[in-house]
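A note from the maintainers: we've had questions about how concatenated examples are separated. There is no special marker in the raw files; a new sequence line simply starts the next protein. For clarity in this README we add a label.
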Amino acid sequence: MTPPTFLSLEEVSSHNTSIDAWVVVNGKVYDVTEFMPKHPGGAEIILRYAGKDATKAYNEVHGSSVIETLLQSKILGQIARSSTVSERNETHLEQAAESILKDDKPPLPTIINAYDFEEAARKTISKKTWAFYSSAATDLITRDLNDSSFDRLFFRPRVLRNVTRVVTETRILGQRTTLPLFVSPASMAKMIHPEGEKALARGAASQGIIQCVSNSASYTLAEIVPSTPPNYPCFFQLYVNKNRKKSEELLKEITALSGVKSIFLTVDSPVTGKREADEKVTTGESIATAPMSLSNAGNGSKGGGIGRIMGRYIDSSLSWDDIPWLRTQTTLPIVLKGIQTAADAKIAMDLGIDAIMLSNHGGRSLDTSPPAIFTLLELQKRCPEIFSKMEVYIDGGIRRGTDILKAVCLGATAVGLGRPFLYALNYGQEGVEHLVRILRDELEVSMQMVGITDLSQAHPGLVNTLDVDHLIPSSDDHPYAKWRPSSKL
């Protein structure tokens, strides 16, 4: 075996131009000269690190497989570790700053609800990460309504029931789960914790719930799946690429992995919403990369929006006519994620879709779109037959066990939580597990208080929706404005 070639930082530093660029990542020296023009996020960010050690910026958001896969043939050797005093001092100061930041987090046992995790994240994670995770479209109306809409639904508890033992187990697409909830797909989990989606997967599996992995995850699904027991179920969320061949190749890889049980096709984001808080905070020196989409986020002419820049690969031409194409690419059950009207739910049912997820993308796509719990009521009002034909899930604004129970009473098979799990990941796998235990306890107590002991006993009569019933549409048409568009929709 050929011994490794060792290169000094001084030698690397001389290769710092657009026609001769080397970078150091995780101790390896790469020649990125030819790759720069092909870089999805532009050549500028790579040129910024030409001749330098980019390890810290890279590891903040990347899995190691990204550069190793793309540039395996461009590894020149390993860096000789002979840091100068100033470099060591700089590293020491960075580590000290990070330590202070970590010490500001409240001890995990003092976290008693999902809101506590959110507040801890707000105070301790980077400004850019907070902006990316917490931001939503324009005036945040839908994001906030997702949460507050549950406050307008009231329980109708039944008393004098034997509620000594409560069962929260159920099935999602035939897969056992200890709770009627799963981890909704959320991008770039490595921005808040080095283990990212792998820690999410371990935490979810240890508590018996299922993770839906984002197409824009920090790690590939092949890296995430081994984090859970063999054949442990997971779901995969798909954005269809403008280059359909890339989506076809990805689906082939995903379908071949053991444990993947369904494809969640996102349909509520043909383009990326205007998330102003995300746009206002520039990405700085680091750049986010999602290996399964090969998309990157950096600073653009409209700001530093990670979501917008990473979403440039998404195919905005996707339509109902493409569902047969998707069926030819996978044998897995298909879930449409992002249904927001009864009309589209009925089309999905007629096309034989396996399940639908009522969602407005956490308020991140179209502001003033309806909260998912309102869409759930619209389905009950206008097409209740759907609930006997397919499973229905909702996400958006779910923070309490009471929210979960209200959704199940009104017909949801299960609910998804996205941001709360990202905020819990601030504490690593232990944080994820702690959040699940909190939600489990809240759900169990809520079931006992309302007078049921099994999820199969939940029904709409346990929830008073009178405060919002006037907001639920009765038809596809406006109640009195009757003009029609002149062009065909």
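[label: protein 2]
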Amino acid sequence: MHRVSMLGAIIHMYISFVNTLSIPLNYSIPPNPPGFSTRIEFGNEPLNPVGVYINAIGAMSEWSRNAWNSEFTGTIGVVDSRLGIAITSVEIVQPKKRPALQMGYVLLGLQSGVLAMAESDQFRELVVFLQYQGAVQGVVEFTRGLRSDVALNSSSNSSVLGRGIQDNINSLTQDSGQVYDMDPKYHWLSIDWRFDGRSILASEIFTTILDAMISTASEKPDAERSYVYGVSSSGNTAFNIHSLTYTPPGARKLTNDVIRESLYLIARYIFIKERKFLETDFTISIFRKKIAEGFFMKVSNLQGNQTVPTAIERRNVVKRIATSLKI
């Protein structure tokens, strides 16, 4: 799956056009629903950046198992005591005339909080206020450790969502391996991976993963996808996953929930487990039948002496790259 030369050609082809085109922002986050907005307030306590990213990815994976437009009530949270980070979402009871808080709003708030920290390079406790027509309907909080009322008050419909941290990697070398899913719901899922290229900033990897995850969360979990792309917040890194042109007879299809679960495994059990952040190729198998392949690719170094000055323009270039490589 060596795509460096192909990527370089595509990038050079599109960069020559980017300054003459008027293209809207193509970061994959679904647009805010009418009337919905977020407001962010930073606190003072510092947070572990890796903890923020990996817990946000875990929360996105868990919470998006609910339908995007499903009603959200009570409190949900994720916590990883080893990383010292907790993310919770709390509903604020509304007058009956106001529409219910939707899970999609919570996911948009989660994404907004991560991007606020990543783009400002300020990893501190943070609250995202989820607002509908100016009224606060709920909050997403990033804190050091889970709030005691969330952890202990069972009457608030709270749950601490976490994954068993088992060593589920059968490493072949430090640069390749195979990941098996330990979640009973996805026990049939496995990923073969290989580091294959330049170093990438951890923030680039994680914001790319979150971008791809939320683009699938707004659709039905079992909806089939021929491909999904992700772009880092800076526009310097591309992710692509695409179904294979030929799959074995009886193989399952590539769906939104399979993509999100795969991205969680890649984040947690490849990049975090191996403590390396490099360009990566991978294939996805279901019941040992390969159904899809993909990659993480650094874009900036492939541009040579040509530059794309703004993050918006870089993201547009990367979107074209990622969506052109459905091979």
